[in-house]
Each structure stands twice: as C-alpha cells, then as structure tokens.
Design a protein that fits this description.
mainly alpha, 143 residues, binds protoporphyrin IX containing FE, 88% helix, 4 helices, single chain
C-alpha cells in the first residue's frame, strides 16, 4: 500500500520535527530565559506551559513510535545485519531521547537542583537527537 507508506513517512517526519523542535525550544530558549528567575516565578512560567507541552510531546511520541515500528516492519526483511544493528542502535538512542523528553516536562518542582538536572537531561537529549538524525540519513543510504 504505497499511500500508507507515504502517510507513515510523513507521520515519522512530522512527529520527529515536533519532538526535536520542542527539545530545542525548551533547552535553548526557555531554560536560559527563566534560569535566573526566582523559584516562584519559574513555577508560574513552567506551569503555564506544562499542559500544552505534555499534550504536544506525548502525541508526537506516539506518532514516532507508530510510524517508526511501521517503517521497521516495512524495511526489516529487505535489509541485512549491518542495517539491522544500526537501526537497533538508533532505536535505543531514540528511546533514551523519549524518556528524557518526558522527564523534562513532567512534575512541577522548580527547585534549583531539580531544574539543573532537567536542563542536563535536555542537553543530552538534544545531542542524541542530532546523532539519531545523522544515523537515519546514513540508514537511508544503506538500501
Ligand atoms: C527521537 C527519535 C527519532 C528521530 C529523531 C528519528 C529520525 C528519523 C529520520 C530523520 C528519518 C528519515 C526519514 C525519511 O527520510 O523519510 C527516520 C527514518 C526511520 N526511522 Fe526514525 N527517528 C526516531 C525514532 C524512531 C524509532 C523509535 C523507530 C523504530 C521504532 C524509528 C525507525 C525508523 C525507520 C525504520 C526509518 C527508515 C530508515 C530508512 O530509510 O532506512 N525511528 N527517522
């Protein structure tokens, strides 16, 4: 079903753009902007963002998982072990990014220690996302 393949490719790209875009926005725009705020002010900013962020992020993660598994199912039989190993490595990194992204928008504690842990999580998530995108481009060149 060619049309389903196209829809799933679109879903994968749209969801990936949403998750990576959200991580970039949080890490490079929001965190530096509110880093020096008092805990109370930080709490009010984060609380006002949290509900929409959660819906957006959780929907996009569902999109990544559905389309990613579909793409994997589609491509698995026509590819070989180098491809499989790299794809499994990519999926492992993707799961770490997903867990870190969920962690960064969960809970409402804004205590300094907690805040800096979440910032570190977002930094790692951003670095891994850049690596995953490079891996995905490489995977595409393998078939
Ligand atoms: C943060 C998470 C992820 C990112 C940033 C990401 C990124 C990408 C990108 C940019 C592509 C190329 C799309 C295209 O050219 O049409 C791609 C393809 C693909 N992704 Fe993901 N992805 C992620 C998660 C996943 C997951 C969780 C799975 C599997 C469960 C998956 C499986 C695949 C497969 C099988 C392809 C096709 C690769 C090929 O063309 O050979 N991805 N991904």
């Amino acid at each position: 079903m060619e049309w389903l393949n196209i829809i799933m490719r679109w879903l994968h790209l749209a969801s990936v753009i949403t998750v990576v875009g959200t991580v970039v926005f949080l890490r490079l725009i929001i965190k530096p902007a509110i880093g020096n705020f008092s805990e109370e002010k930080r709490l009010s900013v984060l609380n006002s963002l949290q509900y929409r962020l959660k819906i957006l992020l959780h929907s996009a993660i569902a999109g990544i998982l559905i389309s990613g598994l579909y793409n994997t199912h589609l491509i698995w039989k026509t590819t070989e072990s180098t491809y499989h190993n790299m794809l499994l490595f990519k999926i492992l990194l993707a799961l770490i990014v997903i867990i870190l992204a969920i962690y960064s928008v969960s809970g409402s504690s804004t205590k300094n220690q907690y805040f800096s842990k979440k910032t570190q999580g977002l930094t790692l998530s951003l670095i891994l996302a850049v690596i995953i995108i490079a891996l995905s481009a490489f995977l595409r060149s393998l078939h």
